[in-house]
Amino acid sequence: MIATAAAAGVVPALADASGPTISEIHYDNAGTDTGEAVEIDAPEGFDLSGWKIVLYNGNGGAAYDTRALSGTVPAAGVVVETYPSNGIQNGSPDGIALVRPDGTVAEFLTYEGSFTAVGGPANGIAGTDIGVAEAAESPVGHSLQKVDGTWRAPAAHTFGARNSAGDPDPDPDPVGCDFPVDRTIAEVQGTGDASPLVGTTVTVEGVVTADHRTGGYNGVYVQTAGSGDRPPAAGTASDALFVFLTSNPANHPAVSVGDRVRVRGAVSEYFGLTQITSTAKTNVQVCAHDAPLPAAVPLTLPLDAAGRESAESMLVAPIGAYTVAEVYNTNRFGEVTLTAGSAAARIPTDVHRPGTPRRRRWPTPTRRPGCWSTTAPARTWPTRASCPRTSTRTRRCASATRSRRSRRACCPTASTSGASSPPRRSTPPRPPSGAPRSRPPTRAPRPRPRSAATSRSRRSTC
């Protein structure tokens, strides 16, 4: 038997088809959230005085924002309530309630999951999940819209106008290429670290091998048809490059993986990778659909920089055993960093303390022998001349030929000022657990040897 919300005593809020309803929502996009809003659809001239929009937090179910509506609905048939950046929470899940003037709930919608409201006008009501969501990589200017009673995936927002299915592609991009190719992709890439054509406007042709128009890259990878299936080698030009379509979705052409395209744009280098920037949809033409993808380059690591350069932006097929070393950009850009072999690459501070040239401990074994002076500035290493013999218990500093462990050249102080003994360790004590670590200080200039008179009056210990 399947338990329903009604069986559990919790009734979801359903909208009155003849009254105001929530018709469009925007709460999340790539980068800083902008243009967040909730749109209310209602008959023209409808009086919204006393109506409210209440935002609910799915973590605990409590309300966190209430907006009072007022005035009548204009001829457009919608009213838009805007919010500041991050004013509407990003889900997993969260909800929005539309409340009538008498305090009853006209509609309680949730996104990225469902939950039951706790407190406020929707108390005890189970939200209706709209079934679609925005993500951290959703383009700026998109929203979730209810069209013909169904909520749709993110698309260019229509705030201020009633949502309509319309023509899904009123002006489809034609298939066919009419501007001539003047360079091959290999000529644009060149055989060096950077393209020899940086700053030049070129036209190239290739097959789309990866589509990253969403997720932060705003572009596609294009590779020469029939290329690949060769090992990477120094001095061989790559047959693929990245086409940057700018961050404005209006400039993005309708292309898919497997399309054979011609691209016109300026050549540049971006973080060491060659790319062409297309600033208008008309700069990308689709010559044919469903073209065969180029063969993958067999890639064996480790590989020197010149060898990697020859496979830049191309489809590759790693050969051998690899270990996932980093997934920081997996959810952002679909990247996974691999390390050749069965062990993940370790960063230096996993092995040695930060700020140390080859594990430089403080003090280092390469320091000249010295002693700790109670009268010298903290953490300095005076010369032997400033560490006179003060008693029979005193030992002079160990010689440079003795081991570091035996170089405990310090002894109880004989200072007339009553200073306590310095630590009898060749390295300073470790900080307590949980204490912040700081970079070891640089070695202070060696103080000049004091005279015998000074040494007797301001005693040091070694």
Automatic annotation (TrEMBL):
<feature type="compositionally biased region" description="Basic residues">
    <location>
        <begin position="392"/>
        <end position="408"/>
    </location>
</feature>
<feature type="region of interest" description="Disordered">
    <location>
        <begin position="347"/>
        <end position="462"/>
    </location>
</feature>
<feature type="compositionally biased region" description="Low complexity">
    <location>
        <begin position="363"/>
        <end position="391"/>
    </location>
</feature>
<feature type="compositionally biased region" description="Pro residues">
    <location>
        <begin position="425"/>
        <end position="444"/>
    </location>
</feature>
<feature type="compositionally biased region" description="Low complexity">
    <location>
        <begin position="409"/>
        <end position="424"/>
    </location>
</feature>
<protein>
    <recommendedName>
        <fullName>Lamin Tail Domain</fullName>
    </recommendedName>
</protein>
